[in-house]
Specification:
Structural class: alpha+beta
Order of helices and strands: HHHHEEEHEEHEEEEEHEEEEEHHHH
Number of strands: 15
Distance between the termini: 207 Å
Low-confidence stretches: 1-9, 16-32, 387-395, 401-407
Largest sheet: 5 strands, antiparallel
Shape: elongated
Strand order of the largest sheet: 3-2-1-4-5
Helix content: 25-40%
Strand content: 15-25%
Mean pLDDT: 77
Number of helices: 11
């Protein structure tokens, strides 16, 4: 019994001592550290691996070797290559990219940035045929050039464009065509009160109604391809003006020559003659070239809107002007006053007869000129020859007469 009491008292004093140490350690934190440091080594337990560590060792799989002995370059070479590579993702920069996916309203493009770029549908192409799909304009998995048109958004994404690159290329092509003074073909895509709108290398060009050759700016023009030449090219103001009449006149003038018979439309009457439109060109049919007989009243012979056939007697290819004649097509003088339709019906045959007569007259003139030249040659031979009883000097007799008068 005494032993039990002694044991209980010992436990009480040990608890009290431990409690006092704990209170003291809470106050300054020093006693606790010293108690742990002074504790026997066999009391400190080593903590083993956790359950997570065990699972990680068991299920993390096969670890690849990190050795670079089999590689053609080292990690230092790779780091140098990265440092020396320039990334230009600034606005208006041209970068290479590959379209990877059609998205809502555009295309996802991989340009090598930290985030994929986005190509809006309106920036996919300069020329967009009616009814075409986005997949018809840009193909996937094909490397193309893109222009960056925005700054990075909050997700690091950039907007890119194909249309702006094609726009600059179109202007370069137009400027080259203008410098070569070329004739081109373009489709009419719309009309208005002033003329028509044509698509030239993907650019909208204005065709004034006054420069249409033999046509009016109506809806019938839409979809037609016309031959054009440039009137004004101004890239700074995005202004492009073209002419159909200029292109047609230049082409036709290259094929026309004096003596050709052409068909035309009387556009206006003047006191000195009539203006006839021939394939977009304006030709003058002077009143003196209408008939071999005198014309008292021009309106009784020709009227505006009348279809006529004329012969070209002169032309100005630089300004696209021609001089016409109908009297050369008359079989008898005055036929244009009495029966102009017969003159037009037989114009080709009459023109052939007229050319034959002109050729005969030309040959006759050449023969006459040749005879004159030969006759002069014979006279010179007689002057140079030694005639019997005549002096070789044609002025000898004259000089002898002068000597006799002066003696």
């Amino acid at each position: 019994m005494k032993f039990c009491k002694a044991t209980a008292l010992s436990a009480f004093f040990a608890t009290a001592t431990a409690f006092s140490v704990s209170r003291e350690s809470l106050r300054n934190g020093v006693a606790l550290k010293s108690a742990v440091a002074e504790a026997p080594a066999e009391v400190v337990k080593v903590r083993g691996p956790t359950r997570f560590d065990t699972l990680k060792l068991k299920w993390k799989g096969i670890q690849p070797s990190s050795s670079d002995e089999s590689l053609d370059f080292s990690y230092e070479d790779f780091a140098d290559a990265v440092d020396n590579t320039e990334y230009s993702f600034e606005r208006n920069s041209i970068v290479k990219g590959t379209c990877v996916e059609y998205a809502n309203g555009g295309i996802i493009v991989d340009i090598g940035a930290k985030a994929s770029a986005f190509l809006p549908e309106q920036e996919a192409a300069l020329i967009k045929p009616l009814g075409c799909e986005l997949s018809d304009l840009v193909d996937l998995d094909v490397e193309l050039d893109f222009q960056i048109i925005s700054e990075e958004d909050e997700n690091g994404q950039l907007l890119v464009s194909r249309r702006r690159i094609q726009y600059r290329a179109a202007w370069d092509a137009v400027l080259e065509l203008q410098s070569n003074d070329a004739i081109l073909e373009a489709e009419v895509i719309g009309v208005n009160r002033g003329g028509a709108i044509c698509l030239v290398e993907g650019l909208r060009a204005f065709l004034p109604g006054s420069h249409l050759a033999g046509q009016l700016p109506t809806e019938d023009l839409v979809g037609q391809s016309l031959k054009l030449k440039f009137l004004e090219v101004n890239q700074e103001n995005n202004k492009l003006v073209v002419s159909n009449r200029k292109a047609v006149v230049e082409q036709q003038m290259a094929d026309l020559s004096r003596g050709d018979v052409v068909s035309g439309l009387v556009k206006a009457l003047k006191p000195y003659g009539a203006f006839v439109e021939v394939g977009g060109m304006s030709g003058l049919l002077h009143i003196s070239q209408i008939s071999f007989k005198r014309i008292e009243d021009l309106e009784k012979v020709l009227q505006p809107g009348m279809q006529v056939k004329c012969m070209i007697i002169d032309h100005d290819k630089v300004n696209g002007r021609i001089a016409l004649s109908t009297k050369t097509l008359e079989m008898e003088p005055g036929d244009m006053l009495t029966d102009p339709q017969t003159v037009f019906d037989n114009a080709e045959q009459t023109a052939q007869e007229y050319h034959r007569k002109m050729e005969e007259e030309r040959q006759a003139r050449e023969k006459t000129a040749r005879d004159i030249v030969l006759g002069l040659g014979d006279s010179l031979d007689d002057l140079d020859g030694d005639g019997a009883g005549k002096s070789s000097d044609p002025l000898a007799d004259v000089s002898d007469s002068l000597d006799s008068l002066l003696s």
